[in-house]
Amino acid sequence: MPTDTRLTVVFLHSLGSSRHDWDAVIDRLSDEVLTVTIDLPGFGDRAGEGYGDVQVVLDDLSCRLTNLDLARWIIVGHSMGGKFATLIAARARDGAAGLSGLLGVVLVAGSPPSPEPMEENRRADMLTWFDDPTEIKDRGRQFVDANTAAGLPQAAFDQALADFTRTSPEAWRGWLAEGSREDWSDQVAVLPFPALIIAGAEDGDLGEGAQRRFNAPHYRVADVVVVPDAAHLIPQEQPDRLAGLVLKFVEKVGSSALPARFVGLMASERVSDRTRRAMLDRHFGPAPTDGDVLNPTQRAVLSAMIARILPDAGDPDDLTRRLNVGLGSGQGDGWRFADLPHDAEAWRRGLDEIAAVAPEFATLAPDRQDEILRAISQGEWAEPGRLSADAMKLWFEDVVSEAARLWMSLPATWAQIGYDGFATGGEGRFQGYDQTAADHTEPWRLPMEGVG
Question: Is the model's pLDDT at 1 over the cut of 60?
Answer without folding.
Answer: no
